[in-house]
Amino acid sequence: MPNAIITGGSTGLGRALAEALLSDGWTVTIDARSEDRLAAVADSLAGPIRHLAGDVTDPDHRERLVRLAAADGPIDLLINNASELGASPQPALRELTEPTFRRILAVNVEAPLALINRVRPHLGPDSVVINISSDAAADHYPGWGGYAAGKAALDHLTLTLAAEEPDRRWYAVDPGDLRTELHQSAFPGEDISDRPLPETVTPAFLALLRSRPPSGRYRAADLLAGQDARR
What we know:
Elements: E1 3-6, H1 12-23, E2 27-32, H2 35-44, E3 49-53, H3 59-69, E4 75-80, H4 98-119, E5 123-132, H5 145-164, E6 169-174, H6 181-186, H7 202-211, E7 216-219, H8 220-230
């Protein structure tokens, strides 16, 4: 049974990915900062799921998370999904405080790389690493500069890892605008019900894992369109 870690697994895309992988026959370990929410999600999902509350920027938490996931063997998939938006509503760069920007970079850039390096001894030859990106990493929107800078840096790390270790698959995946708590935080008080639910893009991730295209940056919309074209 393949074995996965998903960070930020208590809500939104992380929760949807956990459910999709469990349904596809995976063992899944999730983390998030809220113990209560994380435990509730783990109790609500069917299948072999483990959970550990903590902050991905904490080295001790990352150590315990990897040990928990590796208890039953190699880790076949790491999804760095935990993300930090920063202030809500989103400030212009001239108003972005240094502590907020440091937190964004710590969660969105430093923690994913640190977790990759910590999990490395437990990765098998066919293991996959997926870092969750954003369209803001490639485009430019007022108020999104801090978050976008972190995601752009994560994209760069992903593709550099692919250049350094070409025998493994490294993916940065832009899931698109989704109806999640993080996205709602970017638009406080606004109605975002027109955005699709996270569950609508999980087939793109499953398709990626099954087809294993070359390492790179992918958009979930393109992966789904490719699926439709093959039908």
